[in-house]
From TrEMBL:
<dbReference type="GO" id="GO:0050660">
    <property type="term" value="F:flavin adenine dinucleotide binding"/>
</dbReference>
<feature type="domain" description="CBS">
    <location>
        <begin position="50"/>
        <end position="111"/>
    </location>
</feature>
<dbReference type="Pfam" id="PF03471">
    <property type="entry name" value="CorC_HlyC"/>
</dbReference>
<comment type="similarity">
    <text>Belongs to the UPF0053 family. Hemolysin C subfamily.</text>
</comment>
<dbReference type="GO" id="GO:0005886">
    <property type="term" value="C:plasma membrane"/>
</dbReference>
<dbReference type="InterPro" id="IPR044751">
    <property type="entry name" value="Ion_transp-like_CBS"/>
</dbReference>
<feature type="domain" description="CBS">
    <location>
        <begin position="132"/>
        <end position="192"/>
    </location>
</feature>
<dbReference type="InterPro" id="IPR000644">
    <property type="entry name" value="CBS_dom"/>
</dbReference>
<dbReference type="InterPro" id="IPR016169">
    <property type="entry name" value="FAD-bd_PCMH_sub2"/>
</dbReference>
<dbReference type="InterPro" id="IPR046342">
    <property type="entry name" value="CBS_dom_sf"/>
</dbReference>
<keyword id="KW-0129">CBS domain</keyword>
<dbReference type="InterPro" id="IPR036318">
    <property type="entry name" value="FAD-bd_PCMH-like_sf"/>
</dbReference>
<dbReference type="InterPro" id="IPR005170">
    <property type="entry name" value="Transptr-assoc_dom"/>
</dbReference>
<protein>
    <submittedName>
        <fullName>HlyC/CorC family transporter</fullName>
    </submittedName>
</protein>
<dbReference type="Pfam" id="PF00571">
    <property type="entry name" value="CBS"/>
</dbReference>
<keyword id="KW-0677">Repeat</keyword>
Length: 305
């Protein structure tokens, strides 16, 4: 009689799927979720977790150190990619600690109360001449997330640039993005709150994360944003646009179908919408042509006739 071979992975997956399984009874819900995510990690590609190209925060190689520090302060990241001619020409990345090391030096006098001295003259130097740009890791979009996590751990690299088949920059992935695929969302003191999932960027234009709930979208835009019966089966703006399109729209695709509004997809993959722009369409008011009357005196009009 032939013996069926079952792997440990399959055994664990079956046990986790059965909530009343005695083998996993001691696991908490959070532990069970993490184990489920670990088992699925081999099927997750970088494309599923990366930061889209449109959301990449980067700096040009010819800016000075002062502008770099200001950029770090503005975006709240600890690492920034450095490019020359554009995002398709990324040369590496800079860590904020390397940047700060160039504007400070330790004070050797033990009687000094301040342990470091600021070097303001360094702020005017170009970052390309300071030797603080670290090499970047470049990876393809189809690389499994588990393989990249192992590579980043081995090379002690915390950021990788995702490139397409032509060598262009498609996105960016950090080791935090990979860890979130296992343990869930990791928020720190610099992360934006959920209220910022949608924001107004123009008089009639809004940018929204696809996860923004329809109630929050309507609260910001106003009562004229009314999905009506379309909201019966969906809760997020991404779900609404998916239903309107009838498929997963590609980046750059425009979707209509909701009175007074049009949606432009800013980021999406093969399975879901990630970010979109909402346009309010203003109605064109018909203006009647002005009647032209003869303003000349009556006697002058009569003479002309």
């Amino acid at each position: 009689m032939a013996r069926t071979t079952v792997s440990l992975r399959d055994d664990l997956q079956v046990a986790l799927d059965e909530k009343d399984s005695p083998e996993t009874a001691d696991f908490s819900e959070s532990e069970r979720l993490i184990l489920q995510n670990v088992l699925k990690l081999s099927k997750v590609s970088i494309d599923d977790v990366m930061v889209e190209r449109s959301d990449i925060q980067a700096v040009q190689a010819d800016i000075n150190l002062g502008a770099l520090i200001a950029r770090f302060r503005q975006v709240g990241h600890s690492r920034l990619p450095v490019y020359e001619s554009g995002l398709d020409d990324i040369k590496g990345f800079i860590h904020i600690k390397d940047a700060l090391s160039k504007i400070t030096e330790p004070v050797t006098d033990p009687e000094k109360e301040v342990p470091v001295k600021l070097l303001s003259t360094a702020l005017r130097q170009k970052i390309g001449k300071l030797g603080i740009t670290r090499p970047a890791m470049f990876v393809p979009t189809f690389m499994p997330a588990a393989d990249l996590l192992q590579s980043m751990r081995a090379s002690r690299t915390h950021m990788a640039i995702v490139v397409d088949e032509y060598g262009g920059t498609d996105g960016l992935v950090t080791i935090e993005d990979l860890l979130e695929a296992v343990v869930g969302e990791i928020e720190d003191e610099h992360d934006e709150t959920e209220a910022a999932l949608i924001r107004k960027v123009g008089e009639d234009t809004y940018v929204a994360n696809a996860r923004a709930e329809l109630e929050d979208v309507q609260a910001l835009i106003g009562p004229d944003f009314d999905p009506g019966e379309l909201a019966a089966d969906v809760e997020t703006i991404g779900g609404l646009v998916f239903d309107l399109a009838g498929h997963v729209p590609k980046r750059g695709e425009r979707v209509s179908g909701l009175d007074g509004f049009e949606f432009e997809v800013l980021a999406a993959d093969s399975r879901r919408i990630k970010r979109l722009r909402i346009h309010r369409k203003r109605a064109i008011t018909h203006v009647e042509p002005l009647a032209i009357t003869d303003q000349r005196p009556e006697a002058e009009r009569a003479a002309a006739e």
